[in-house]
Amino acid sequence: MSIRVDLLLKTYGTQKAVNNISFAVGKGEIVGFLGPNGAGKSTTMKILTGYLQPDGGTAEVCGTNVQADPLSTKSRIGYLPESNPLYYDMYVREYLHFMAEVHRVGNRDKRVEEVIVIVGLTPESSKKIGQLSKGYKQRVGLAAALIHDPEVLILDEPTTGLDPNQIIEIREVIRSLGQHKTILFSTHILQEVEAVCDRVIIINKGTVIADNTLAELQSKHGQPLIRVRFQEALEPQWLERAISSLTQLEQVAPQEWEIAASDLEQAKKQLLELAMRENLNIVSLQSGEKSLEELFRSLTK
Ligand SMILES: Nc1ncnc2c1ncn2[C@@H]1O[C@H](COP(=O)(O)OP(=O)(O)OP(=O)(O)O)[C@@H](O)[C@H]1O
């Protein structure tokens, strides 16, 4: 395994930022680490990269315990922190040379040019970092994370704050890096996971709540449902009484309901009967599968 986390615990006062989580990432996998704000993603990543000590459990990278041997693990990890700390007064090449020196990279000139090409920095590579757009600054961060050719990349929200074109471009870079490296990257955006990842680990309030391939997640949690919108407000009991095969009922907007039932066709009929009987107006009635976005919302509520 390239990454293994076992019963990891990190507390701040009484708050468990990371609460006994365990997961593993195999060599060559691209795994999305997904969760709402404050879920514990950055904390886990900081422990994995040796920047933070856990209060319990272990974190391993390429078979080495991070806390026991931080130097060896740092040499095998490329880390792009959420804040992407860069020296704005330095030129792109100057900064990458500096990072190459920090990592004791041999043949620095050659490696700096290589990473510039890998992350698509060539057109902006003669500028000062402070003059670059956010997307290009992010590329500099990625290039720095790659400079020592690590086996594992840990990227903390690499596309946050970028415009839609830049997001797609950075995703492309991540996807192509994933052909040769193990990547764990955090995001809030489910489409990003769908676009880039083999697998997704969802974390909420410090706990892993799903660890599946996207297809598994969909079939495990995704279920056919009806979404109905009435013109009128109504009590949930009306729907509970009307639909005989109801398995789940959720109010998604003031007059809109999501209904899961074992017999969807019958449920639709019963909804129409309810509307006629009670003089209610159905504005829209759709059936389909829960999208991954909806799934994420319902898992992390
Ligand atoms: N240094 C700290 N002191 C106190 N609490 C902290 C500290 N760092 C993180 N926390 C808390 O731990 C929890 C997890 O934070 P973390 O930054 O790991 O979440 P996250 O999933 O990365 O969130 P985001 O998506 O917003 O970056 C949060 O409630 C946060 O407030």
Describe this structure in words.
The protein has helices at 41-48, 70-76, 92-102, 108-118, 134-146, 164-177, 190-196, 214-221, 236-242, 264-278, 292-300; strands at residues 3-12, 15-25, 30-34, 56-61, 64-65, 77-80, 152-156, 182-187, 199-204, 207-213, 224-230, 246-253, 256-261, 282-289. With 301 residues, the protein is of the alpha/beta class. It has 2 domains: 3-219, Rossmann fold (3-Layer(aba) Sandwich), CATH 3.40.50; 223-300, Alpha-Beta Plaits (2-Layer Sandwich). It has a 6-stranded mixed sheet with strand order 6-7-8-3-9-10, with helices on both faces. α4 crosses α5 (134-146). The two termini are 31 Å apart. The mean pLDDT is 91. Adenosine-5'-triphosphate is lined by residues 12, 17, 35, 37-43, 82. One of its GO terms (molecular function) is ATP hydrolysis activity.
TL;DR of this structure?
With 301 residues, this protein is α/β, with parallel strands linked by helices. 37% of the residues lie in helices and 30% in strands.
| Percent helix range | 25-40%
Q: In sequence order, what are the helices and strands, one letter per element?
A: EEEHEEHEHHHEHEHEEHEHEEHEH
Overall geometric form: elongated
First and last CA, distance = 31 Å
Q: Which small molecules are bound? A: adenosine-5'-triphosphate
Let me know the largest β-sheet: 6 strands, mixed
Q: What's the alpha carbon Rg, rounded to whole Å?
A: 24 Å
How many domain regions? 2
Second-tier CATH architecture of the largest domain: 3-Layer(aba) Sandwich
> CATH fold name of the largest domain, please?
Rossmann fold
Number of helices: 11
CATH level 1 name of the largest domain:
Alpha Beta
Query: What percentage of the residues does DSSP assign to strands (E)?
Result: 25-35%
Family: Belongs to the ABC transporter superfamily.
InterPro entries: AAA+_ATPase (IPR003593), ABC_transporter-like_ATP-bd (IPR003439), DrrA1/2-like_C (IPR025302), Motility-assoc_ABC_GldA (IPR019864), P-loop_NTPase (IPR027417)
Pfam family, one: DrrA1-3_C
Keywords: ATP-binding, Nucleotide-binding, Transport
